[in-house]
Amino acid sequence: MAHQIMRMLQPILKLAFYGVALFLLAGFVALFLPPKKYPWVLDIWQYTKPISDTVAHYLPTNFRGYDLSLLVALAGVFGIYIALERTLWTVEDMLRRRAFQAKKLKATAALQTAAPQPAPRVAATPSARNPVYSSEAIVVIDLVNSTSIVTRFGNTFLLMLKHRLEHQVNEISLRNSAGFSKGTGDGFLLCFPSLGNSVIALREIFEALPTMNRDLPDGAEIALRGALNFGEVIADRDGDRTGGAIHKTFRLQGLPAASLIESEGGIKREEFPEKNYTLVSEEAISGLTKIQGLQSRFLGLCELKGFPGLHRVYQI
């Protein structure tokens, strides 16, 4: 209910701002029109003059004989509008996050109720403390240009973007049977039982970008870069993942265009994508060829720190 109210307040706020802005602009234009020729100017002045006098009382608004008080008032209204809109974004994302957490807790409680409860043990057996090895599809995604966003729009705004991304990623990964998910600062590490699950999740995350970028100012859009790998991972007693395949996925995700080694059948460095792409390792690409309708392309070779030799890089 609260989320729906926040959604309704946003268009109301916009409508109110545009109405006030149009009114102030009309009052400013009316200052340059003769009342004898345009009688409606007197009606406009009747309502805008108190605003103009109030602003002029506190600020010097005359510039070379022109009264700019209504433009100053318009700038103040615009500043209030931006502050209110950002507040609505923050509250809406907070409500979404709480709703998702409540939904997740409810689903977990339902599963625990339905599943048979194991008999209590005084102490964990040695095998329970040992790490578990398994082969999983590994996805790493990261927010592009987070430094420039926080520099331009501030920490609170970046936190709001992260909440939007977190809400979508958590919901999509849960829906696609992710065995593990973890925030990595400006991104996420996700592990799936199969490449099919990982590809569907990646596609849904990128398809959700227009929703995440709704009503954002220019230059603040959420853009992602991702990497997909497949290999053996180690799950500790808390479920956290580690291992060489994990590290390789992070190296691949952070691969810059300048590090691409051009090779036959690949692309040139200047053709390397800047944002909203997923790089794929050669370990994962062989399994992806079995997924019908999935398109991929060979980009070139690269060196990955800590991993000897050259590695083939693909994109889906």
Describe this structure in words.
- With 316 residues, this protein is of the alpha+beta class.
- It has 2 domains: 2-83, no CATH class; 131-315, Nucleotide cyclase, GGDEF domain (Alpha-Beta Plaits, 2-Layer Sandwich).
- Helix content is 51%, strand content 20%.
- The chain has helices at residues 2-30, 40-58, 69-114, 126-129, 146-153, 155-175, 195-207, 209-212, 244-253, 282-288; strands at 62-63, 66-67, 132-143, 180-183, 187-192, 224-235, 241-242, 277-281, 297-304, 307-315.
- The strands form 2 sheets. Strands 3, 4, 5, 6, 7, 8, 9 and 10 form an 8-stranded mixed β-sheet that branches. Strands 1-2 form a two-stranded antiparallel ribbon.
- A hairpin with a 2-residue loop joins strand 9 and strand 10 (307-315).
- Helix 1 runs antiparallel to helix 3 and helix 5 crosses helix 6.
- It is elongated.
- The model is unreliable at 110-128 (pLDDT under 50).
**Class by SSE composition:** alpha+beta
State the CATH topology of the largest domain.
Alpha-Beta Plaits
Mean pLDDT, rounded to whole units?
A: 84
CA(first)-CA(last) distance: 39 Å
Task: Describe the global form.
Answer: elongated
Q: Treating each run of at least 4 consecutive H or I residues as one helix, how many helices?
A: 10
Write down how many β-strands occur, each being a DSSP E stretch of 2 or more residues.
10
Could you name the CATH homologous superfamily of the largest domain? Nucleotide cyclase, GGDEF domain
